[in-house]
Amino acid sequence: MKITMLGTGTSYPDPERVQSGILIELENDRILFDIGAGTYFRMNQLEIDLKTISSIFITHFHIDHCSDFLMLCQSLWLSGDDRQLDVYGPPFIIPWFRGIFDITYTYARDRLSLSSSVLYENVAIQVGDALISNVPTIHGTMDTRALKLEAEGKVFVYSSDTAPCKDVINLAKGADVLVHECNWLDGPHPEGVHTTPSQLTDILEEVQPRKVILTHVSPEVVKNSNKVVDIVNRRTDAEVFFGQDLLSVTL
């Protein structure tokens, strides 16, 4: 299993970081978790053939997690690709898909072989040799899912956007790799939206992953990256990575 951080930024512009996206490469599958703005460009940098992507899991429909899906569809249409691509997301995926292909991409509707499926809470999905499960996170009013992928004897968990959340903690316990958001510095913030370094320290103490990658890092978090990593490292034996675009971890 190879995990590549395509995008580790937020909705704030950052010349070094594009928006959220992760590529998971297995022996027989390539799977995307989120496809925010710039992730399509990162895949091109890596010379990833878009036709080799078998499934896309969209954790929620904030634009920084899904906007490059439209670019992907356009490219697949231009290439004449008719291979089935399975797309999963929270229940809003059904009207979202309908809006894309009934209004924007009507010309591509009959030439692309796409399927959209709902991520039901706590229901696992089999993708090739991978088993992918989800739980709801705490992210304002947005229906957002954390994802757990089990394959090749390894466990990978992606928090997506979330405040500290017991369901996400339970999902991630003992993971080989946990990719967790760290959007804010410590300090006063709206409750129930994102995670701070000190909150992540508490989360890691419970989860005890082997490796952790910080993602969805805002420009202010990036400016204080050394301090943030020091805080996160306080009570964990995990190997902590401050996420960078194109960072890869192989298990």
What does this molecule look like?
By secondary structure, this protein is α/β, with parallel strands linked by helices. The protein has one domain (about 1-250): Metallo-beta-lactamase, Chain A (4-Layer Sandwich). Helices cover about 25% and strands about 30% of the residues. It is built from seven helices and 14 strands. A seven-stranded mixed beta sheet has the order 6-5-4-3-2-1-14. Helix 5 (about 195-205) packs parallel to helix 7. The longest helix is centred in the middle third of the chain and has 12 residues, at about 95-105. The radius of gyration is 17 Å and the shape is globular. The chain starts with a strand and ends with a strand. The mean pLDDT is about 95.
Task: Please give a handful of descriptors for the protein shown.
single chain, 251 residues, alpha/beta, Metallo-beta-lactamase, Chain A
Describe the secondary-structure layout:
Blueprint lengths: L1 E6 L13 E5 L4 E6 L3 H7 L7 E5 L11 H11 L5 E5 L3 H12 L9 E5 L6 E3 L2 E7 L8 E7 L2 E5 L7 H7 L4 E5 L15 H11 L3 E5 L3 H5 L1 H8 L6 E4 L5 E3 L1
Parallel strand pairs: 3-4, 4-5, 5-6, 10-11, 11-12, 12-13
Antiparallel strand pairs: 1-2, 1-14, 2-3, 7-8, 8-9, 9-10
Helix pairs in contact: 5-7
Strand order of the largest sheet: 6-5-4-3-2-1-14
Helix content: 10-25%
Separate helix tally: 7
Number of strands: 14
Largest sheet: 7 strands, mixed
How much of the polypeptide forms β-strand, as a percent range? 25-35%
Query: Which spans of ≥5 residues are poorly predicted at pLDDT below 50?
Result: none
The termini sit apart by: 5 Å
- CATH class annotation: Alpha Beta
**CATH H-level superfamily title:** Ribonuclease Z/Hydroxyacylglutathione hydrolase-like
Topology order in helix (H) and strand (E) letters: EEEHEHEHEEEEEHEHEHHEE
User: In terms of structural class, how would the helical and strand content be classed?
Assistant: alpha/beta
Global geometry: globular
| Total number of domains | 1
Give the CATH topology: Metallo-beta-lactamase, Chain A
Indicate the radius of gyration in whole angstroms. Answer: 17 Å
Mean pLDDT: 95
- What is the CATH architecture annotation? 4-Layer Sandwich
